[in-house]
Amino acid sequence: MMTTICSFWTIKAQLQSPTPTRAKRRQSFRGKINELLGRSPKVVPGQESEARLIYINNHALNEQQNYLHNRIFTGKYTSFTFLPKFLYEEFSKYANLFFLFISGIQQIPGISPTSRWTTLVPLLIVLTITAVKEVIEDWGVHRSDAELNARGCKVLEGSQFVERPWRDIRVGDIVRIDGGGHFPADLTGKEVNLKIKQGLPQTAKCVTPLDIGQLQGTIKSEQPNNRLYNYDGTVTLSVDEVGRNRDFALDPTQLLLRGAQLRNTSWIYGIVVFTGHETKLMLNSSKKPSKVSNVTRLTNRNIVYLFIILVVMSICCSIGGLVTTISKGSQMAYIAVNDMSRAGEFGYGILTFLILFNSFIPISLMVTMELVKYIQSYLIDSDLDMYYEPTDTAATARSSSLIEELGQVQFVFSDKTGTLTCNEMQFRQSSIAGLSYADKVESDRQARDGVDDPTLQYTFSQLETHLKSHSTANVINEFLTLLAVCHTVIPEQQEGSDEIIYQASSPDEGALVKGASTLGYKFHTRRPNSINCNIRGRDLEFQILNVCEFNSTRKRMSAVVRGPDGKIKLYCKGADTVILERLAENNPFVEPTLMHLEEYATEGLRTLCVAMREIPEDEYARWSQIYDKASTTLVNRSEELDRAAEMIEQDMFLLGATAIEDKLQDGVPDTIHTLQEAGIKVWVLTGDRQETAINIGYSCKLLNEEMSLIVCNEENHWDTKNFLEAKLKEISDVKNRGEDLEPLALVIDGRALTFALEKDIEKILFDLAVLCKAVVCCRVSPLQKALVVKLVKKYTHAILLAIGDGANDVSMIQAAHVGIGISGVEGLQAARSADFAISQFRFLKKLLLVHGAWSYQRLSKMIFYYFYKNVALYLTQFWYAFYNGFSGSTLYESWTMSCFNVIFTFLPPLAIGIFDQFVSARMLDKYPQLYILGQHNEFFNQKKFWGWFANAIFHSLILFFTGVGAFRNDGVFMNGTNGGQWWVGTVVFTAVLGCILWKGALITDMWTKYTFIAIPGSMVVWFIYLPIVAYIGSSVSTSVFPEYNGIVPQVWGNVNFWLYLILVPFLCNLRDFAWKFAKRMYRPMPYHFVQEIQKFNLPDYRPRMDRFRQAVNKVRRIQRLKRNRGYAFSQTDSDQTKIIRVYDTTQQKPQG
């Protein structure tokens, strides 16, 4: 039973006296304002040196400290901040700011050549749609926060625990957390069971609500900070009946962090020390940043270019108008001219033409982009291929504004445990007495009984048969006995069941003990000095005389055991490199065991060698004295214990080896391999030991046998710098000589990374890392994960993606351009803080290669098409200015121009942006190399923008001048009036619309029913709109759409109109068709080939080299294993002996 400090959500506070002060009231008021504004509290460096005082079981005094509440808020907006924050962000977009300016000057009488509402109304519609989308997305975050804040937790009130929501938990509250529950705040507590987190023995007696309710004392705690692995505090408790107090130190082993899950433990009591946004994990999680996609940034830049062109056009037209007035003013006395100065007339002209040409910049582009992204995010949410049935979890796009970034990712930063692996170890194979056994054996490799062939495999059921009659039965018995005895596992009986749960500090140990249990060697009871095992129906007791624990230097652990027969035996298990050199001479099973180890390694299994020897009584007596002396020394105790262990761990007999599978999530190796084929560099950032991370790297195909590992484990700044510089120079020299560079992988541990991230080394680290195909960072903290991401972001313009499943991955997820959370067993903190959430790592492949590639290509095409159509239309207005003396007259009716974007050409960009597919999902999965097009910005770059712009100029010239030429003779209407510019304007507008829609059809790769509705349907809408406004408008009033009065029969009845409508748009797009044909035939892109493979269902003739590559990789794996074996044993460096020496599973555990 232990006292543990558990941290759920840590909050900042100062040591304060019981009486509130003015400063405290100010702090409380400031906290309320911050809460209203949705701000997180900041840790003030100067305050960290002060202590926060927490009174145990004294709520009144704790309330006076004004500590922060436990509610959390991760949304972007509050009801108070929504409007100012939203308007600030929207008017940070150049397009919206420009249209706000145009809307303002349109209200000035006499300036606008169009209606004063034609810009303001569309702008308000755009802002309203965007606001609704923002509210919907942020509401989901608020709902998640509300669900988290409403979670229940048992809180001590008087002498009983009552249910209370997380949001109402306060500093100083004593809570009870049951097994499997999550911690609601940062706690210090008392727990019952084996745990790497251990409480104070002084509170171990408090196992009932009455006991814990009578506990009195104070906790002096450090101030809230973001140091996850550090904690300093003291608890003052009464130590005798007289009431004398004593201080006991608190450290990180007594700290439980908010959001973490209680495992391997039935229940704990804990006292809350930090709450809400002052918990350590929340202080490590910065406020969810506002991320802007690369495509959006480039679009804003292009809008600036269009604005500059618009201003130049307006100035040119204003100059033209001024020149016309000066040179021909006497000839235009019939025109009413404003009586103003030349300068005033010039400025007046600029404003007029700015209004006239304002839709040169597409007002609805941004809202169309947001709408398309929102629908694309819905398609992700609805994709059944990314639905995980066991947890009933679908993929979720929590931030649709970044969806196109998924198609341009060049770096993926991934956590390991829970993201790549399930953190489930399974005992798969073993080598015993030179024979290999496995839980599943392929039929062509299965050995027959009676044939001892080390190259074949036996099943575990055959192993049980060998135990009875085989010549190696004694070795098998010792092997399985070792697995059942040599460990620090605690067995826990499930209530109402015979099932035993093994609580282990290392998942490897748990897997080995469980494996032995399934083979008939069932460990079921632990006492301080002995254990009991049921071995083939017999209950046997083994005395545990000594345990020599594992550490990273020894790479092995051993137990000295007195068996039921009274003999003393040493059982030892560890890395093969350290076991083999401690064997006695003439061990008969070394060679076949090594062969089996090589086979296991090629399958990515984690291997251990196991050995034993009998120890004579007199030898043990002498050694025991040496061990006891070493265990009680006060100087270099761990080194002395290692020396003592070295003396006994000699002349051992090799029993065999074990092979454990660190179970990967389904599809992880294939996903990583595919991502690498797609040009994506995968970096794994993990808190695990280096050996474990490397082994998993090979298992999941992040590392392969073609790669040369660069391992950096330096201990100080200068050694790290020298190592990285030397490696970088060595690689650069190879490249400069023009030699082929073998694939590289960089492996660096957390300590060396600390130095490598300093300013004078970080660029060297980056330069070396980007030359590597894979990077593995081991033993890193959450902050280091974020710093690595920020380092790459600093020195490259590539799109970065971070993926993780735990709260310790949040800072990394938020630092990357795109953050993906896995909603798994580690909780939902990562998923809630991410831009996208998936339930399995394998879904990342479709998310990037299919949805990402589609979204990027669709949006790129849609944005350029949007620019093109507006430039093509409004340049015809510019050419018309040369015909009307730069008077500011418009060629088109003003409301028709306003409806151009929101009605007549609204659907085609939507159809392209939502439904178009340049290749199918199956082809994108089959040819991941197509993803490289997005990484190189092939579909969205400045060259393409200016190409589309030039094309729009070309089309506008043909459309306007052929229209003016064809209809230069004015039409005479039935009422005797001339058509004027409306006659030509209506014809040209119709042809421009036809040309734009034809262009949309030409760039569409896949036609759906929605495409047919959008493109031909838009022309139908125009032909419905024109008679409605022409006839209904004039019937209402002569001032309603007077421009179209009588125009329909005059235009539609003219055969030239229909010839013009068919031929001129065709002529415009003929050049585009010829260019598209020439590019596909003579300068094809990779996706052109795939499109033809897809269309004609061509077979794939790529050579099949799989078998050859597998053979080559197997040879290389064996070579690697021979170079560097024995690093696949995962074990925690901790003093487990103290725990097992006080543990007795025969005693009834308190229920709390």
Automatic annotation (TrEMBL):
GO CC list: plasma membrane; trans-Golgi network
InterPro entries, per the entry: ATPase_P-typ_cyto_dom_N (IPR023299), ATPase_P-typ_P_site (IPR018303), ATPase_P-typ_TM_dom_sf (IPR023298), ATPase_P-typ_transduc_dom_A_sf (IPR008250), HAD-like_sf (IPR036412), HAD_sf (IPR023214), P-type_ATPase_IV (IPR006539), P-type_ATPase_N (IPR032631)
E.C. numbers: 7.6.2.1
Reactions this protein catalyses: ATP + H2O + phospholipidSide 1 = ADP + phosphate + phospholipidSide 2; a 1,2-diacyl-sn-glycero-3-phospho-L-serine(out) + ATP + H2O = a 1,2-diacyl-sn-glycero-3-phospho-L-serine(in) + ADP + phosphate + H(+); a 1,2-diacyl-sn-glycero-3-phosphoethanolamine(out) + ATP + H2O = a 1,2-diacyl-sn-glycero-3-phosphoethanolamine(in) + ADP + phosphate + H(+)
Presence of the UniProt keyword ATP-binding in the record: yes
Named cofactor requirement(s): Mg(2+)
Annotated keywords: ATP-binding, Golgi apparatus, Magnesium, Membrane, Metal-binding, Nucleotide-binding, Translocase, Transmembrane, Transmembrane helix
Claim: DNA-binding is one of the keywords in the record: no
Protein residues bound to Mg(2+): 415, 417, 805, 809
Start and end residues of each P-type ATPase N-terminal domain: 54-120
GO biological process annotation, one example: endocytic recycling
One GO MF term: ATP binding
Membrane topology type: Multi-pass membrane protein
Main location: membrane
Active site: 415 (4-aspartylphosphate intermediate)
Family: Belongs to the cation transport ATPase (P-type) (TC 3.A.3) family. Type IV subfamily.
Protein name listed in UniProt: Phospholipid-transporting ATPase
Species this chain originates from: Umbelopsis vinacea
